[in-house]
Design goal:
435 residues; mainly alpha; Serine Threonine Protein Phosphatase 5, Tetratricopeptide repeat; 2% strand; elongated
């Protein structure tokens, strides 16, 4: 292969040594068109050329190296070409493009801004400059360019879409929505737009429009994973759990390593009380993201209801460790832990869990009632039980109803607590323990 390459180059060189400058340029262009990039490099490295075409030779070498993905060398030769002819838009654009490829976006922006200042930047160059600004998260500069471009071409789908992206990154949801919708009218088959429009409606808590826009996307792609994820999530939000499971399972078939899919599929299984499926799905989700307190909590709950109580305790405690300081959420976890410890007959630990739950919500006097129940029914400490029952009553009525098994009907919790206190006091009297 290498031998044939050298023979081919030698034949070319023999012809080019005596050729006119423009014939040399033409021959090298033909090599580029035929994708004979190695030959371009060998020929341009060997042949002596007139100064008048030296810039073009550097440029051609740059193109050959770029085609071979050697961007550093390509930049090197483009730079020399531009240094020899600074009025060439092609050379300067090539320098900017290679800088961008090399991750040197700041320098690339300087090159494009130079073209802009010299009034040499066309639509394509301005669009590339806007993309570079977006890459550096300078969305305002990017938007300034897109608005300029749209003033000349208001129906350009790409510019509308990119402007929408910039506004979305700036958290300007209404502006993002307007640009995305304008782009969508021009290209309704772009599922990316459907996904982002739906997401914005979700953030605005406009479920009706979220569902409407999402369904438009399914017209063009019934198995799009992003739309399946979104629709599954919406079904979960609207308590249509079986439909959520259906869509999220279809999404999982395409990507079983998505935290989003595994988390919300697990939550959906939990809500339909398919605790075995919820447990294994959430276990996978937690493996993918062990910092999510909500995953830990629902995994613990799924473990509890699928009779894995000991392991459940581990994850309830993990959810407490991960929980942000939200008293309502922490209270729920502590109450779940307390109930779980009661199931396991670990009553001291149940009481230890009720205490922080009460700290999280001092106004919830039902917690005093639950503590009283532990002392009453589990630890047989009647005096202490009475103390907590009375603490419950001191806070005033809660309006809760509780089924009275003795009478076979529901009655107010307050009434049942009062009756229980009377019964405990009666027991203590006969036990000679009532003070």
């Amino acid at each position: 292969m290498i031998k044939r390459l050298w023979i081919s180059c030698l034949c070319l060189l023999i012809g080019l040594w005596s050729a006119e400058a423009q014939d040399v340029v033409h021959s090298i262009k033909m090599l580029l068109l035929e994708d004979r990039f190695e030959e371009v490099i060998l020929v341009t490295d060997t042949i002596a050329v007139a100064d008048s075409i030296q810039d073009e030779i550097f440029y051609f070498r740059g193109r050959a190296y770029q085609a071979l993905l050697s961007y550093d060398r390509a930049y090197h030769y483009y730079y020399f070409a531009a240094a020899l002819d600074s009025n060439s838009i092609s050379y300067r654009v090539a320098v900017g493009q290679m800088l961008a490829k090399l991750g040197r976006s700041r320098e690339a922006i300087e090159v494009y801004e130079g073209l802009r200042a010299d009034s040499l930047a066309g639509t394509q160059q301005l669009a590339e400059l806007a993309s570079l600004y977006s890459l550096r998260k300078d969305y305002k500069s990017s938007l300034e360019i897109y608005h300029h471009l749209l003033s000349y071409d208001s129906l350009n789908y790409f510019f509308l879409k990119q402007a929408g992206n910039c506004y979305e990154d700036l958290n300007q949801a209404d502006s993002a929505l307007n640009f995305f919708k304008s782009a969508f009218e021009l290209n309704p088959a772009d599922v990316y737009l459907t996904h982002h429009i739906t997401n914005i409606y979700l953030k605005k808590q406009d479920l009706e429009n979220a569902i409407y826009s999402m369904q438009k996307g399914f017209v063009y792609d019934t198995n799009n994973i992003d739309l399946l994820k979104l629709r599954g999530y919406i079904w979960l939000l609207t308590s249509q759990f079986e439909m959520a499971v259906w869509d999220l399972e279809k999404a999982r078939a395409q990507d079983s390593n998505s935290v989003f899919i595994m988390k919300y599929l697990g939550l959906s299984y939990h809500e339909v009380k398919a605790f075995d499926e919820a447990r294994e799905t959430l276990r996978r989700a937690f493996l993918l993201d062990s910092t999510d307190a909500e995953i830990a909590f629902f995994l613990a709950s799924s473990l509890r209801w699928s009779k894995h109580e000991e392991e459940s305790i581990i994850y309830f405690n993990k959810s407490i460790e991960l929980q942000q300081p939200d008293p309502d959420d922490l209270k729920k976890v502590y109450l779940q832990l307390a109930e779980l410890y009661k199931v396991l007959h670990r009553f001291d630990e149940a009481l230890e869990s009720y205490d922080p739950a009460q700290v999280c919500d001092p106004e919830d006097n039902v917690i005093w009632f639950k503590i009283g129940q532990v002392y009453d029914h589990n630890l047989n400490q009647k005096k202490v039980a009475i103390e907590y029952y009375e603490k419950y009553l001191d806070k005033g009525p809660t309006g809760q109803q509780l089924f009275n098994t003795a009478e076979g009907k529901s009655s107010s919790l307050e009434q049942q607590v009062k009756e229980r206190i009377d019964k405990l006091k009666e027991d203590l009297f006969f036990e000679n323990q009532l003070e």
